[in-house]
Amino acid sequence: MSKPQAAERRSKRLIGVELVAILLALLFLSPFYFVLVNSVKALGEIMVDAASFPQKYLFSNYSKVWDIIRFPHVLYHSFLITGLSVIGLIVLSSMTAYRIVRRPTKFNKILFFCFIASMTIPFQSVMLQLVRVTSTLELRGNLIGIVVCYLGFGLALSVVLFHGFIKGVPLEIEEAAVVDGCSPYGVFWRIVFPLLKPITVTVLILNTLWIWNDYLLPVLIIGSNKDLTTIPLAVTRFFGQYTKQWDLALAGLAMSVTPIVIMFLLLQKHIVEGITSGSVKG
Predict the structure, then answer these.
(1) What is the Rg, in whole angstroms, of the alpha carbon atoms belonging to the chain?
(2) Chain segment 196-218, per-residue pLDDT in tens
(3) Does residue 281 carry a pLDDT above 50?
(4) How much is the pTM?
(5) Are 247 and 180 a contacting pair, CB within 8 Å?
(6) Which of 229, 236, 239, 250 has the lowest CB atom count within 10 Å?
(7) How confident is residue 16, by pLDDT bands cut at 50, 70 and 90?
(8) Regarding the domain delimited by 62-281, which CATH topology (the fold level of the hierarchy) does it fall under?
(9) Is the Cβ–Cβ distance between 166 and 97 less than 8 Å?
């Protein structure tokens, strides 16, 4: 086969791959289309045809949702809970992974195995026990309780991600810092942690997406405490036993997803960079 023919075949194959990628992208973006289009429709129009463009754009749906769920109030709670949980996960998981990698004792190896094993346990299997334990420790209905629960459930994956990346950090850099008189904590925070930027951003994005959109854990821990209501809990107000206000609910979903989509678009390149770097170096 001549070189022009081989190049032409590779070009056709590349075009085919690109077409498949475009179709998959459209498939995954279709839910956003339905949310945005139906968020400016009347309820009756949604029931008749949810896929068509609105005959009349009702942007007043957004102002109604803003007032009904007190959007600034619940937005602040979501930011507070997500921010504290993610910062705690980054600090604890990075230090834990660093200790496991640099001190590969038998205990640390068993601990790392326990982190991996815990990722296979379904959340539904520990729901009842979680409610009992948090009630006994008086952690239900307060900020500390929900943050502690997120730290517990999110620590395993974060440790595994940091673990793979830290193994690729040259030990000679740390030894040079020790010779210069740097303390163990100084070595980690001044030398090692800045090198973990790609995986740190990855952990930040993955946990932010999870915590921001989570409904089940807040409904178990926060419950009816209106002082800590998050956006997912507030949006459920539009789904009653006999009626479902899809027009307002979809407007609320569009408002709630906007901050997280903006953050994801700004930082998405670091997800692949962090995961691939950890897998290759480890």
Answers:
(1) 24
(2) 888 898 888 889 989 998 988 99
(3) no
(4) 0.82
(5) no
(6) 239
(7) confident
(8) MetI-like fold (1.10.3720)
(9) yes
